């Protein structure tokens, strides 16, 4: 399945999962939350997810390196400060949190099945190919970073 590596932009995968979660919202069982709680909890996850996405993008911008997840070969630096001191993939973690929040907002129990599916897809077809390219490009510096900082959190 190498043909899928770095082919579908992560936001497209996110939107596909979000549409599926929306379509699953009517199936029982549903999360037993009233409007206020679903808005607070779901909105909180989405806010946290968007915050991680933004912190990651700003760190890339600060270091003048590519923000395009489809072209890791264009990276000009390994970003290891800011949010990248805690997680190697803050944007992908942010997208996961966005999906969790979307499940809560839609009260979709079955939607939660898509979150681990999203993680597996992103790890297999996005993160691992990115890591291979960055290993080849940055060598020991990148290897040390991989050993020190967790992939997700």
How does this structure look, described?
There is one protein chain. The chain has 153 residues and is an all-alpha fold. Helix content is 61%, strand content 0%. The chain is built from 5 helices and no strands. 27% of the residues are buried.
Helix content: 55-70%
Q: What percentage of amino acids are in beta strands? A: under 5%
H/E element order: HHHHH
Question: Structural class of the secondary elements?
Answer: mainly alpha
Q: Mind describing the biggest β-sheet?
A: none
**Cα radius of gyration in angstroms:** 17 Å
Question: In a nutshell, what does this entry contain?
Answer:
The chain is mainly α and 153 residues long. The protein has helices at residues 10-24, 35-62, 90-105, 114-138, 140-148.
Looking at this protein, list some descriptive labels.
mainly alpha; 0% strand; 153 residues; 5 helices
SSE blueprint:
Elements: H1 10-24, H2 35-62, H3 90-105, H4 114-138, H5 140-148
Helix pairs in contact: 1-3, 1-4, 2-3, 3-4
